[in-house]
Amino acid sequence: MAVQPSEDRRPALSAADPELAALVRAEERLQADTLRLIPSENYVSAAVLEASGTVLQNKYSEGYPGRRYYEGQQVIDQVETLAAERAEALFRMDHANVQPYSGSPANLAVYLAFLRPGDTVLGMSLPMGGHLTHGWGVSATGTWFRGVRYGVRRDTGRVDLDEVRDLARAERPKVIFCGGTAVPRVIDFAGFAEIARETGAVLVADVAHIAGLIAGGAHPSPAPYADVVSTTTHKTLRGPRGAMLLTTAEHARAIDRAVFPGLQGGPHNQTTAAIAVALKEAAAPEFAGYAHQVVANARALGEELAARGFDLVSGGTDNHLLLIDLTGKDVPGKTAAKALDRAGIVVNHNAVPYDTRKPFDPSGIRIGTPALTSRGVPAAAMGTVARWIDRVVEAARTGDEDTVSEVRAEVKVMMDACPAPGLPLV
């Protein structure tokens, strides 16, 4: 639930740095008043927020529980063990490392554990929906390693496992990544695992976007198939900004050594504590209802948008995410995203498969339903959300700022009626 207001919830910060305190209050207001449709954003609970700001911030804890390089770790060891055990139970994996600072360092640890510079990695192409750290050229992973990329079919917008198999047989990668940042369909973990076994590759499932859906039973789990599962702890999982690596027992030691001492020093213990809280929340029965509602909302929103002539990549969604090609609307993605932002609807411009426009000014937008679902916005309201998007995209094409302002006022009314968890009642 929302946090009750007070005269000043951060008196020490206000006294020490009123300028920064004012910016925090401004961000609280922005998050409260806007319809956040960026798929990677969400609201954490008040409990997760509190855990993130504890005296655990004061501790330095290089190493792992029972094997630290600093004394005074009696409590910290218990905190990290609790988080790891909860992750292992929730995702049904043998081992969990909860120390990675974020998703990209977690994926870098995979490279350090299993590859040497110049080795081949097979991942989804960034413009097709993959992630920078899956071997894309501008990333360190594409600079130090040989990235080979698969995409999606032009006619379906879906991954073609025959293409993946052919590439794997020809290129013999040591690691295969499945998953990405703009993948609106169920990931066939079993199909990827079969290819990895045939070609002798380590299969890494990057489930950063869908971890909460997996935890809530709204998306199939990679646990029976993947050697390593990499995930952030925010997004659909509704935890703090951190990451985890889950592995089979066979690969636990290699991953642990890659994280520390391979890439990182001391873990961020306050984040580890908040991860533990989020994992406990994700194991509760009501979390499953949230996860399934995220998918129901995304599907309903997709159907409403399609009915208004929006071109959905792959024709729709199986998860929390919709990728929309605005070419047919005669509006560039960036122009639409900025207009929607002015209307209080926060999305991101995004490349679509086989996009002919430049990456920083692409043809599409990417939207998702985790944050609005956390606010309790129901599937029945997705028609209203779709109408707002339709009105603003058309207004962006014609330069109609009056419509943008009208939608902004309507959005605030809905947001006031659906307060965000963890935020003060500003």
Automatic annotation (TrEMBL):
> Which UniProt keywords are present, listed alphabetically?
Amino-acid biosynthesis, Cytoplasm, Methyltransferase, One-carbon metabolism, Pyridoxal phosphate, Transferase
| Residues with site note (Plays an important role in substrate specificity) | H234
Q: Which reaction(s) does the protein catalyse, per the Swiss-Prot or TrEMBL entry?
A: (6R)-5,10-methylene-5,6,7,8-tetrahydrofolate + glycine + H2O = (6S)-5,6,7,8-tetrahydrofolate + L-serine
Give binding positions for (6S)-5,6,7,8-tetrahydrofolate: L126, G130, H131, L132, E250
Where does it live in the cell? Cytoplasm
- Pfam families for the chain: SHMT
Family recorded in the similarity comment: Belongs to the SHMT family.
List, alphabetically, the HAMAP family matched.
SHMT (MF_00051)
The protein's name in its UniProt record? Serine hydroxymethyltransferase
Which organism was this protein described from? Answer: Streptomyces nitrosporeus
